[in-house]
Amino acid sequence: MFVKNPTIILPEDPDTIVWKYLDLSKFLDLLLSKKLFMSRSDKFEDQYEGTFSEPTYEEIRKIAENNPKFLNYYKSHREKIVISSWHINEYESFAMWQIFTKNNEGLAIQSTVKRLQEALKPERKTEQFIGEVNYIDYKKEHIPFNDTFFPFLFKRKSFQYEREVRIISDVTKNNITVNDGVKIDVDINQLIEKIYIHPKSENWYKNLVIQLMEQLGFNFTIEKSDLESDILI
């Protein structure tokens, strides 16, 4: 269930377009299970995920001198935060295709911030929040710690190209052990507005994706990639 948090910043326009690039197996898992996978925050490639900038860490370290549990809480808390990452962009991104898909295969889901909010309504076990990631200089800039989600809504400037919006959840109250992540219930038809198939994929692969969706009873709009357009001379 999506919950509004006044301290978490969202794009002003609810119709802001967001994308998720993924391989066919993950896409089929989403369709078959009608559940969205959310990764455990400390399993991301970025080792700084969920950590603090240097100025904030120094501030917390001083507090922790008299209360060691304070710092330990933030370290262990990363295991209980789960995240689904989406990319803000009016258009599809060549870079995102390169990073998140392999062998010229894969798909991109196009959605909007509003559709993400609506898609989360079937979930009843955990509360979901949506926030836009801030990109800062971790050596100089401060990350607030008056909200436990804030460390997970900041990243280093090196990752600015991601232009990320996150669905984020704290599963501490659920008293579950999170391995790589958790799956949450979603309304698939709300979540997905359009599908783009990898622009460099072979025709057999495109036909396979279309066939699989038809057999599963889905009729999502499939758009031709702008990166696949014919060259005009």
General description of the model:
It is a single chain. The chain is an alpha+beta fold. Helices cover 27% and strands 24% of the residues. It has one domain. The protein has helices at 24-33, 54-64, 68-77, 94-100, 113-119, 188-191, 203-215; strands at 17-22, 35-40, 81-88, 107-112, 129-132, 134-136, 154-156, 164-170, 181-185, 194-197, 221-223. α2 (54-64) packs across α3.
What is the topology?
Layout: E1 17-22, H1 24-33, E2 35-40, H2 54-64, H3 68-77, E3 81-88, H4 94-100, E4 107-112, H5 113-119, E5 129-132, E6 134-136, E7 154-156, E8 164-170, E9 181-185, H6 188-191, E10 194-197, H7 203-215, E11 221-223
H/E element order: EHEHHEHEHEEEEEHEHE
Instruction: Report low-confidence residues grouped into runs of 5 or more.
Output: none
Calculate Rg over CA atoms.
19 Å
Molecular shape: globular
The number of distinct structural domains comes to: 1
Structural class: alpha+beta
* C-alpha termini separation: 51 Å
Q: What percent of residues adopt helix (DSSP H or I)?
A: 25-40%
Number of strands: 11
What average pLDDT do the residues reach?
90
| Number of discrete helical segments | 7
Biggest sheet architecture: 9 strands, mixed
Which percent range describes the beta-strand content? 15-25%
Organism: Flavobacterium orientale
Protein name: DUF2971 domain-containing protein
InterPro entries: DUF2971
